[in-house]
Amino acid sequence: MTRFNHLKTTALAIALAGSAAIAVPAHADIKIGSSLAITGPASFLGDPEAKTLKMLVNELNANGGINGEKIDLIMYDDAADPNQARTFATRLVEDDEVVAVIGGTSTGATMAMIPVFEEAKVPFISLAGAVVIIDPVKKWVFKTPHTDLMACGKIFEDIKARGLSKVGLISGTGGFGKSMHEQCLSVAGKYGIDIVADETYGPKDADMTPQLTKIAGAAGLQAVVNPGFGQGPAIVTRNFKQLNIKVPLYQSHGVASKSFIDLAGDAAEGVRLPASALLVADMLDDSDPQKAVVVGYRDAYVAETGQPVSTFGGHAYDAFHILVNAIKSAGSNNPAAIRDAIENTKGFIGTAGEVNMSATDHLGLDLNAFKMLEIRDGDWTIVK
Amino acid sequence: MSELLQFFFSGITVGAIYSLVALGFIIIYNSSGVVNFAQGEFVMLGGMSTVFLFNAGVPLAIAAVAAILITCLVGIALNKLAIEPAKGASVVTLIIITIGASIFIRGMAQLVFDKQFHRFPSFSGDDPFLIGGATILPQGVWMIAGAIAVFIGLFVFFTYSLTGKAVLATSNNKLAARLVGISTNMMMTLSFGLSAAIGALAGVLVTPITLTSYDVGIALALKGFAAAILGGMGSPFGALVGGILVGLIEAMTAGYISSEYKDAASFIVILAVLFVMPNGIFGRSTIDRV
Asked: Which of residues 259-278 of A touch B (CB under 8 A)?
C-alpha cells in the first residue's frame, strides 16, 4: 500500500513538473492569466513575450499596482500546441479564475483557446499574427500584432508609390507564408497591383533559383515580393543576387530582425520590408509619438534580460498596457467592464503603433503603424 | 537554353547536398544493416559546431576540422553508449535507438547552441560563376567536388582496403567475421565514427548555402535517405547518383511544371523506380541461401 502511495506521489510530481506552470509568486488581488509558447518551435516568439510580461508585472507591482491592487500573473507554457493551450485556457478560467488573459503566441493556440474565453466571458488579448483572430470580430477577443493583410497593403502601397505595378510573388509554404500569400492575392486588385508570377518553395528548401529564374522571365516584371518566415527569405535574397535580378525585392515583417541581415549578407542591400517602429527606435524623429514608448521599452528590456529587443516582446508590451489601462478606466475587476474598456481603447501609443479600437475593430491599427524600411550598408533605414 | 542550364545548376547544387547526406548513411548501413536516423543530426552538428567555433574567433579551416572531430566523437559515443549495450538486439530495435538518439542530440543542440539560424562565409566568396547565361555559386562547386571526393574515398575503402572488407564482413555475418579474427565491436565503432565524420563534412560544406539551425537534421536526413534508397542502399555510387537525381528532378519540376509539385514529383519518381527495381538503381539484391 505504501509503495502504491509512493508511486502515486511520484506520478503526481512528474505530472506537476510536466505541466510547467510558471506562476509569479505574489499574493495579489487582480489575477491575469497567460498561456504562451515559452518552449517549443515558436519559443523565439514566446520567450521574449513571457520575459516582457514578467518584467512589466514586477515593475507595476513595485510601483504600487493598479489603484493599490497588485497584479497576480498566472503563466502557462503551451509550447505552441493547440491541445495544451486549450487545457490551460480551461484551467485559467475554472481553477485560477482570472479576470483577463494575454496570450496565445501562435495562431493555432489562439484559435484553440478562443471558444473557452468566449463561453466563459473573459476578455482575451492574443499575441498571434493571423487576421482570422479578429475577423470576423469576436466579442471577447482582441489582438495587438499587425496582420499579414496589413503587411501586403503596406508593401503594395510602396510599390505603387514607386510607379510600379507588375509583381512576382515567391512564397514559403509554411503557415505564415501561405496565409500572407493569400492575403496579398486578395488585396492586390485594390492597390492596382498585377500579379505576373506566383511561385512557392518549401520551408526547408536550400535553393530557389529555379523559381526565381521563372519569375525573372515573367513579362514586364517590376518587383518581387517574398512572403515567408525563417531561413527561406534569406536564401531567396541570396539567390536573387546570384541571378542578378534587377527589380526591387520586398520581404515581409516576418523576417524583420537583425539576423535576417546577417544571414542574407551583401545580398540584403536595397531589400525593403514593412516593420514595427521598435526595430528602428533610435532613428525615429523626436516628434514621433512612438519614440518615447519604443526607446523606453527597448532600454528596459535590454537592461532586464541582456538580450536584444524583438517585435514579439513588443506585442506583449502593448497587450499588457492596453489591459492595465482598461482595468484602470473600468475601475473594477469585472471581466465584462474590462472588456468594454478594452474595446474603447483610443489613441494608445504602443510599440506597434497608435491603437484605436472599436466595436468593429478589435485590432485598432492602420497602415501607418508599419514603417517601410530599406536595408542600406547592413543596417535599417526608414523610407520616407 | 540558359533557363535549362540554370535549372540544371540548381539541381546539381541541391543534389550534391542530398548526395553528401546519403553517403553518410552508407557506412553504418554496410556494417550493421542499420539505417541511422541520427545521420541528419551529424550534419547539423558539423554545421553548428563550425559556426560557433568560427564566431568565437577560430579560423574557418580549423573550426571545420574541429567540428568534424567533435561530431566523430559524438558518433563513437552514440555507438558505445546506445548501440553496443543493446548487443544482440534486432536491426529494427537498433533503428529505433537511432531515432531516440536523433531526438536527444537535437534537444541537446538546442541547449548547447541556440534556436536561431546561422551561417558562416562561403569558402571562396559569393560571386557566382557565369556559364552560358546561368549562374552557379563557388560553394556549389565545393559541394559537388566534396560529394565526388567522399564517393571515391568510400569506393576505394570498401573495394580495396582490408578494413573496408572487414566492415562488410561484419554486416554479412557477425559470427563468421569474429571467427576469422575481425573485431566486430571495433568495426562498429569505426563505422559510427566515420559516418559521423562524413555527416559533419557534409554539414561544413552545405551550411553556407542551406544555413543551419538545431533542427535542420530532420529534413536533410529525409531527403538524403530517399536519395540513398533511390540509388540503392549501401552503394556509394548509388548514393551519389541518387542524390543528384533527386535534386535534378526537383529543380526541373520547379522550373518547368510548378514549384508546388516539386517534392511530390521526386517522391513519385522514387516510388516508380522502387516498383521496378526494389533494391534501387545500383543496389544488389540480397539472396538468402537456405
From this structure: 259, 262-263, 265-267
Fold agreement (A2-146+295-366, A148-275): yes
Domain count, chain B: 1
- Interface contact A242-B3, CB threshold 8 A: no
Task: Kindly list the distances between the CA atom of residue A18 and the CA atoms of A15, A113, A220, A266, A376, in Å, as whole numbers in the listed order.
Answer: 5, 20, 57, 45, 46
How far is B245 from B261, CA to CA, in rounded Å? 16
- A206 interfaces chain B, CB cutoff of 8 Å: yes
Q: What is the pTM of this model?
A: 0.82
> Choosing among B211, B222, B249, B266, which should be mutated to test the A contact, i.e. which has the most A CBs within 10 A?
B211
Q: What is the pLDDT of residue A39?
A: 81
Residue B273 has what pLDDT?
87
Question: Is residue B30 included in any domain, yes or no?
Answer: yes
Q: What mean pLDDT comes out for the span A84-96? A: 95
Is the pLDDT at B229 greater than 70? The verdict is: yes
Q: Is residue B108 part of a domain?
A: yes
- Nearest chain A Cα distance for residue B199, angstroms: 17
Q: Which range has the worst mean pLDDT, A238-242, B1-5, B121-125, B203-207?
A: B1-5
Whether B117 and A263 lie within 8 Å, measured CB to CB: yes
Say how far residue B271 (Cα) sits from the centre of its chain: 21
Alpha-carbon span B278 to B125, nearest angstrom = 42
With respect to residue B238, please indicate whether it lies within any of the assigned structural domains: no
Enumerate the domain spans of chain A.
Answer: 2-146+295-366, 148-275
| A363 shares contact with chain B (CB less than 8 Å) | no
Amino acid found at A375: I
The C-alpha cell that represents A285 in the structure block: 524623429
CB within 8 A of A98, min separation 6: which ones?
A: A31, A32, A33, A74, A92, A122
Q: Do B3 and A206 touch (CB under 8 A)?
A: no
Average pLDDT over residues B156-164: 92
A148-275: CATH number:
3.40.50.2300
Interface predicted TM-score of the whole assembly (ipTM), two decimals: 0.85
Q: Sign of the CA dihedral B13, B18, B24, B26?
A: negative
Give the gap in angstroms from C-alpha B178 to the nearest C-alpha of chain A: 43
* Contact residues, chain B, for A243 at CB < 8 Å: 6, 135
Segments forming the whole domain that contains residue B149: 17-216
pLDDT in tens, A30-44: 999 999 998 877 787
> Which residues 173-232 in chain B show a CB within 8 A of chain A?
206, 209-211, 213, 216, 219-220
On the question of pLDDT at A22 being above 70, the answer is no
The topology under which CATH files domain A2-146+295-366 is: Rossmann fold (3.40.50)
pLDDT attached to residue A3: 52
* Cα distance between residue B218 and residue B222, in whole Å: 6
- Among A200, A207, A258, pick the best mutation site for testing chain B contact (most B Cβ within 10 A): A207
Binned at pLDDT 50, 70 and 90, residue A18 comes out as very low
